[in-house]
Amino acid sequence: MKIALLQQNYIVGDLYGNARKIIEGARMAERAGAELIITSELSLLGYPPRDLLLQRGFIKRSWQVLNWLAEQLKDTPPTLVGLAEPNNLKEGRPLFNTAALLEDGEIRVCFRKSLLPTYDVFDEDRYFEPAPTPQTFHLSNNLVGVTICEDIWNDRDFWQRRRYHIDPVEQLVHEGTNLVINLSASPFTVGKQQLREAMLSHMAQRHGVTLVYVNQVGGNDDLVFDGRSMVFSSKGKLIARAKAFEEDLLIVDLDSMHGYVSQDDFTPESEIWRALVLGTRDYARKCGFSRVLLGLSGGIDSSLTAAIAVEAMGPENVLGVIMPSPFNRPESIEDAQQLARNLGIKTLIIPIADIMKSYEEALRDAFTGYERDVTEENIQARIRGNLLMALSNKYRALLLTTGNKSELAVGYCTLYGDMSGGLAVISDVPKTMVYRIAKWLNKQKQVIPERVLTKAPSAELKPNQTDQDTLPPYEELDKILHMHIEQHMSAEEIISEGFDETTVKQVLKMVKIAEFKRKQAPVGIKVTDRAFGTGWRMPIAYVSYEELDIPEEMFQRGQ
Question: Which residues are catalytic?
């Protein structure tokens, strides 16, 4: 039996567009001899649909489109399509996360998701009712079990601690299933694919079943889906793997266990680069932008962001804006111009010295008696932000923000200044990784000027300024941030790893008080396990338990 894995890039809410994409893929699969066609999770709706699921009209229309799709596919092999199914019972959540099997022009049967994730970027319990048991159907000589995304992420032997009390795959195996299919919309994070492969291989071998995993590809808002759909034999061998970060049609012969394993590069620099390029391209395209612009400072962050933009949009669709002030070093302007030449993009130079003087004059009386401080520095950033937003409006081009994760974490950025924009491309990339990706990129082709990689990073908002005037060295800062943000470690735990107590406490305090900035930041592309996006749910106004002056006697009683 040949099966087809449709790894496609859907647009959230584009019911007819997604349906037409499925039809095109299904007809290609039929010509290749497939007997079963599988799409990804919620494929008809696009993933994640979020609160579109609360709109009854949207759900109703999706089923109208599904019926039309079934009619269009009546002469093609059976096809599994993901969408949301109304829950007609008088209790529970209003919907099921469903895979509908289309065959002979009809909706033959619906399979419902059992395990509903509510962690990180997921909030499926908000919309969906869990199915008590997974379901099966017969095809050729196979009893096929259908699971949806999270249903396969609960193997008792693979995970030290299981999140759920049931294992749908285990239940399917007990029913005699020999082929398990999984429709997924599994977001990318760096290093996750190797974990997926280890988990799926273990699961297939442990249960002695063929395992088929179909993943969505493409960027939707802050999430990137890397595709890499796969098939594993009952012995746990990887039989086939679709392309990474691209649409693909993967045909696999389950009788001969023959398929194509696409070559891949699992180095962090390569993975993050491809994710950011795809995320930027799709965010712009799906939001209706064909052009982008960004400020070029001659620093590493704007240089890498510009390189990503060129790869995503083409050099003819990228504008670099250089806005020198009296505090910019001449070499910074030279580096920005050299970068633009290397990338083949147009530049626009708008000096801001005169605008700075007009602000100083307007605020002279109001600021009398006050010393110069960060206020004047922020005015420069906000002048640049205003100019960039004006160009964005006039040119109908998406403004890309260039700040990195390290800066966003500790608030080393200016609201309505360098934070202005529609997409924060590298906001989930720590500063040290920004340098790693830039060096990796230069090995492919010399793009970023060497001086950008070697000079001390600086916002250049006052004379002889460097980032390390305010922050610890980035190598140290990023380690502390990783332990606190992604590993959820307290100050005490981080200090116990050998870090300076004063530095750790200061960094964690900066993370806390910068929360109000992050709530107002542009959408960023998630590439790490914990980004400052939809999965980050910290309060703004709160007291850290580590700042409380707890009497010793209370502390002893609570131990």
Answer: 41, 113, 149
